[in-house]
Structures are given as C-alpha cells and as structure tokens.
From TrEMBL:
PANTHER family: SULFOPYRUVATE DECARBOXYLASE, SULFOPYRUVATE DECARBOXYLASE SUBUNIT ALPHA
Annotated organism of origin: Methanothrix harundinacea
Protein's UniProt keywords contain Plastid: no
Name recorded for this polypeptide: sulfopyruvate decarboxylase
Superkingdom as given in the UniProt entry: Archaea
Catalytic activity, EC: 4.1.1.79
Gene3D superfamilies registered for this protein in UniProt: 3.40.50.970
Catalytic activity entry: 3-sulfopyruvate + H(+) = sulfoacetaldehyde + CO2
Thiamine pyrophosphate enzyme N-terminal TPP-binding domain mapped to chain residues: 10-106
Any one Gene Ontology BP term: coenzyme M biosynthetic process
Keyword field: Coenzyme M biosynthesis, Decarboxylase, Lyase, Pyruvate
C-alpha cells in the first residue's frame, strides 16, 4: 500500500472532512476508498468504526451525532440500497445530519458489469429520498465536502458526496 497516503483524490476528500470538523467515521471498505480509509485510521482526532453493513453504519453514526460528534459514513454506492430504510426512518425522520462519502461505481469506465445497475440508480434513489448530492471534480472536492457537511447540518439531513471512477483516476500519479 505504498503511496496510498499520497493519493491526491483521497487527500482532497480527507482535507475536506478535516476542514468540516468530521471527528467520527463509520466505513464499509471499497477499493477506491482505501487511501482515504488509511488516512482516517491514522488520525487520532477521528474515531473510526469499520462496519459490516451500511445500515449498521447509519445507526452508529446517528448515535455518534446524538453524542455530539460530526459523523461521516464512507461506503460504495451499492450499499446505498442497504441503507435506504435507516436513512429514511432514522436520519430523515429525526433530522439527524450525516455526511456520506460514496464511491460511485457503475458509471462510465466501470469494468464490473454487476456495478452498472446500482450505478445508474444511485442518483435517482438520492433524489427520491430528498438527499442532497454533490459530485465534485478533484479541484472542487475539498470545498465540496465541507459544503456537503454544512448542508447536512443546516437541513438536518444526510448528504451524499458521489465520487465516480473519473474522480479517483483524476489524481493518478
């Protein structure tokens, strides 16, 4: 995993999270998030809880928020389907903000055909749930992550930052 920590896309998202004061992260692994997860795991100011399913992360992040933390959930978009009920009946109903950093698989350039259906549906699911979504370029990522957290806090809602294959490849060294 040499060089992962210097991955520009991961650094931009990490700086955005730090700037927003994110201090609690639940995560489900994804190859695109590996560099970011390494940075979070190494940061003593961020409590990191790896989870086995996305809806578990939603619940744990809600509890962390009620305990005064600024939570983020890191996951792949295939897990959005797993977390719909928790996002609607917990975060949506009780106005609990949550920053979701989502590796958006299944779009242009996807090599795994099984990722494509959820890749197409992800923006529509977020729209149907009235969850604001952001899809920054590498140059916009740090600022966008901060804005997404501000929007989550202001509206008492989850927000999603969708990071597609192009985003992750834009910082290739």
């Amino acid at each position: 995993m040499v060089g992962i920590e210097t991955n520009r896309p991961s650094q931009a998202v990490y700086r955005g999270m730090k700037g927003a004061g994110i201090d609690f992260v639940a995560s489900v692994p994804c190859i695109n998030l590996r560099g970011l997860l390494c940075m979070i795991e190494a940061d003593p100011e961020i409590m990191h809880i790896p989870v086995t399913r996305e809806e578990e992360g939603v619940g744990i992040c809600a509890g962390a928020r009620l305990g005064g933390k600024r939570p983020a959930l890191l996951m792949q978009n295939s897990g959005l389907g797993n977390s719909v009920n928790a996002l609607a009946s917990l975060n949506g109903l009780y106005k609990i903000p949550l920053l979701m950093i989502i590796s958006h698989r299944g779009g242009e350039g996807e090599t795994i055909v099984g990722q494509v259906p959820m890749g197409r549906l992800t923006p529509k699911i977020l729209d149907a749930m009235d969850i604001p979504k952001f899809a920054p370029t590498l140059a916009e990522a740090e600022e966008t992550v901060g804005r997404a957290w501000q929007a989550a806090q202001a509206a008492g809602t989850p927000t999603a930052v969708l990071l597609d294959i192009e985003f992750w490849e834009s910082g290739a060294i």
